[in-house]
Design goal:
Number of strands: 6
Bound molecules: zinc ion
Number of helices: 11
Strand content: 5-15%
Largest sheet: 2 strands, antiparallel
Distance between the termini: 43 Å
Number of domains: 2
Radius of gyration: 24 Å
Helix content: 40-55%
């Protein structure tokens, strides 16, 4: 979980006037946007910013004519490639590679932080559109038609400032040759109570542990050679140093609370793993190990 820079909203007015229009297709459709309606829509954007993306009734625009609300809702389809608002999508994706929520996959979709179906006036508002991967977007869509009263909000990558400290940790269990890592919010780190609960809520709701489980063994395999070599050279101290260094490299490349460096940090503290337990986890075929140490020797 990480923050993304807050997108500007310079094009908000132009985006609305370009994409919300009346047109004739046998009968008049769409909506002829009036100046006072633009002002009211921008006021809703202001309110969204002021509340840092928190859901509220006013953001649903119940007082607007239905034709206006439906036209703003439909305008989002024009952010698709080759269409009128594609530049909005391009700007939001620029410089964002990995999904800011899970850190597993590349970004490929725009998530309406407040769902488009319920908060139609925000359908094309840049700050309600967060680049995300397919899985995060779809798990979220499936779970949230409407945010129930009192339900914790998910973390907003633009507005919920995450502290620049490690707040994620992995609990490692090794049994019967398998490695299971459970990611959780650290208990001994200073976080606002609400943020702690929301981070926990995010991990659970977006099924992050289940999804990381599928990634972990493939990812760890990429460090099998390094760990074996370091163990041969310097025993568990070598493995610990290797994992810590690798964690620091990945943390700089990615970010502090990405699951990969978090996993490596946890493994570097796992005495069983660093003192030979890794052999059964990596399960490298013996002929490959023989060749590795022949060449080393
Ligand atoms: Zn994701």
């Amino acid at each position: 979980m990480r923050n993304l820079p807050l997108p500007d909203r310079d094009s908000s007015r132009a985006d609305l006037t370009a994409s919300v229009r009346e047109y004739n297709y046998k009968i008049p459709r769409g909506h002829k946007l009036k100046e006072d309606e633009i002002a009211q829509l921008l006021a809703i954007y202001d309110r969204y910013d002021a509340d840092l993306g928190a859901a509220s009734k006013i953001l649903k625009g119940a007082a607007f004519p239905k034709s206006l609300i439906d036209a703003v809702y439909a305008a989002y389809d024009r952010t698709q490639e080759g269409r009128l608002l594609y530049s909005l999508r391009e700007r939001l994706f620029k410089g964002v590679d990995l999904c800011p929520i899970c850190g597993i996959d590349s970004v490929s979709e725009l998530d309406h932080f407040l769902p488009r179906s319920e908060f139609k006036p925000l359908a094309i508002y840049s700050r309600n559109l967060v680049p995300s991967c397919h899985d995060c977007n779809h798990i979220k869509l499936a779970g949230f038609g409407e945010q129930a009263d009192g339900e914790l909000a998910l973390i907003h990558a633009y507005f919920d400032e995450l502290p620049n400290v490690h707040f994620l940790e992995a609990r490692i269990d090794i049994s019967e040759g398998g490695l299971v890592a459970t990611f959780q919010v650290m208990t001994d780190v200073d976080l606002a109570e609400n943020l702690r609960d929301r981070l926990k809520h995010q991990i659970k709701t977006l099924e992050l542990n289940e999804r990381y489980e599928k990634e972990i063994n493939t990812y760890l395999m990429s460090h099998a050679t390094g760990v074996h070599l370091e163990y041969a050279r310097d025993g568990k101290a070598g493995v610990r140093r290797f994992l810590r260094t690798q964690a620091r490299i990945e943390e700089r490349k990615l970010y502090s609370n990405h699951w990969r460096p978090t996993l490596l940090r946890a493994l570097s503290r796992q005495e069983d793993f660093i003192d030979g337990g890794f052999v059964g986890i990596f399960n490298v075929p013996q002929d490959i190990l023989d060749d590795l140490f022949d060449e080393e020797g």
